[in-house]
Amino acid sequence: MTVDLHLHTTASDGSFTPSEVVNKAVQLGLDVIAITDHDTVGGIPEAKAEAFDKDLEVISGIELNTELFDLEIHILGYYIDDNNLALQNELKKLRTARYDRIEKMIKKLGDRGIEIDFDYVCQLAGDNNLSRVHLAQAIVERGYVYQISEAFDEYIGKGCSSYVSRYKLTPRRAIELIKAAGGIPVLAHPALLERDELISEFITDGLVGIEVYHSEHSQSDVRHYKHLAQKYDLVITGGSDCHGAYKDNVLLGSVEVPDKVVRDLKQNQREGGSGLACSSLNQNFNYL
Fold this sequence. Notes:
This protein is of the alpha/beta class. It folds into 2 domains: 3-89 and 167-281, Metal-dependent hydrolases (TIM Barrel); 90-156, DNA polymerase, domain 1.
């Protein structure tokens, strides 16, 4: 079984539509994928419909952007009920905050002589979550820069003159929402966070798993976070964090994730999201 449990689509900040993700996964011979868009479940219905007659399981997931101590912390959720009312209400608030943020960023860009039309950026987003990627696309199309990465580096990336922060959940609230939706909350790419001392606090808040396998985790990171998963009795997950063509390489299916990860996730879901002993994962699996 080959799996990739961390994928983004055009529903958030990916460049592939949900249907394209499914078809590319099938072409690559993947057996299980999870759609984990940022702060939205909008891509899940299309992905599941596209996979209906294919030999591919699509797990309903999400990646909630949160903040604590001025740190951006991402919490993944697996096997969520994407129609859960509490989750939907919170996502609506986040969506509104995204629109407010982009309007403020466009005003700041205008102060620098970068004229971008808000309605046009919304048109680029369509029915999907409005994000800085869509603003960056507009900046490119208006000829101010040549690439999306330049727009982030010069204008709208964190620390740049036109950057605006936005409303975010706390990790505790994200964990609560995922569990209320019947899902399994997992800390995303912990090596990028570099704050292992916070993991025990997240566990107290209800964290159930940790993303051990990731495209930006070294082999040393994998060994380290496998050890922490075993220490804290956390479910292990993994995925490429593919955003399509917006990053230098299309990462879909590029991270080797043991198929036992999916079996343990399913067992955890059946047991009500209480966590799993991870000692059985201490085997000679290949790393990244």
